[in-house]
């Protein structure tokens, strides 16, 4: 069984909807986040399937064409410690519909937008 909970703060939301504090590019498009990751075996010997809890703080930059995120992961309990001595996580997400607008509303039933 596993679960992830994310807390994030959007600097674009701050600038556009709360108060514009004069952030310039690239800070204006940044998001700071922290994930709490839970992972545990459901079946196994009684008292030997402990939950692994991890914290994953990071920062993401999101533009119209792509997203880049970088974070680090560290153990919150002893069950998670063996696999997280030095973990750096990254993500590159390319929004294909910004390059190929015709395919932006693609679904299996309809195919590309017309």
Report on the structure:
- The protein is mainly beta.
- 11% of the residues lie in helices and 42% in strands.
- Strands 1-2-3-4-5 form a five-stranded antiparallel sheet.
- A hairpin with a 3-residue loop joins strand 3 and strand 4.
- The longest helix is centred in the first third of the chain and has 8 residues.
- It is extended, with a radius of gyration of 19 Å.
- The model has no long low-confidence stretch (mean pLDDT 84).
Q: What structural class do you assign from the helix and strand content?
A: mainly beta
Instruction: Quote the average pLDDT.
Output: 84
Strand order of the largest sheet: 1-2-3-4-5
Apparent shape: extended
Radius of gyration: 19 Å
Beta strand count: 5
Number of helices: 2
Report the β-strand fraction as a percent range: 35-45%
Task: Summarize, please.
The protein has 114 residues and is mainly beta. 11% of the residues lie in helices and 42% in strands.
List keywords for this structure.
about 110 residues; mainly beta; five-stranded antiparallel β-sheet; about 10% helix; extended
Chart the SSEs and their pairings.
Layout: E1 2-10, H1 11-18, E2 30-39, E3 52-62, E4 66-75, E5 87-94, H2 96-99
